[in-house]
Amino acid sequence: xxxxxxxxxxxxxxxxxxxxxxxxxxxxxxxxxxxxxxxxxxxxxxxxxxxxxxxxxxxxxxxxxxxxxxxxxxxxxxxxxxxxxxxxxxxxxxxxxxxxxxxxxxxxxxxxxxxxxxxxxxxxxxxxxxxxxxxxxxxxxxxxxxx
Length: 147
Known about the structure:
The protein is an all-alpha fold. It has one domain: Orthogonal Bundle (Globin-like). Helix content is 68%, strand content 0%. The chain contains 6 helices and no strands. The protein has helices at 5-19, 22-36, 59-77, 83-95, 102-123, 129-144. α2 (22-36) crosses α3 (59-77), α2 (22-36) crosses α5 and α5 (102-123) packs antiparallel against α6 (129-144). The longest helix is centred in the C-terminal third of the chain and has 22 residues, at 102-123. Residues 2-147 form the Globin domain.
C-alpha cells in the first residue's frame, strides 16, 4: 500500500513526538501488548519470567524494546520506497522461527497506535488514527506475505 506525502509526514511527525521519550513510550507499548495478549510475552526471550511492571529498568527488556522501536523507525523511514520490501522480508525471516506471525504484528500495531494516541493527547498534538491503523495493516500484510 502506498501512502500520500501528507500521511507519511503525519506518521513521521507523530513518531518524532514519541521518540522524545523513547523508553517511556516503549514500555507503554509493551505494557499494552502484554496486557491485551499475555501469551505473547513468552515469544520474547528478554521478557520471559518478568512481570510486566518489571520491564521498566530491566536492561534486557530495555535493549529489546529499543530494537523493536528501531525496526519501526526503519519501516517509517522506508515508506513508499523499494527498501520497505527488503525490511519486510528481513522481519519475516527473523520472527517466523519464534512463531511471531501476521496477527502478532497486527496486535503490536494496535498497541503502538494506542500508545501514540496517548502521547499525542498529552502533548496536544494531532493524531491521525486512521492513517496509523492503515499503516500497521499494511505492515502486517507486508511481513505476512513472506511467512
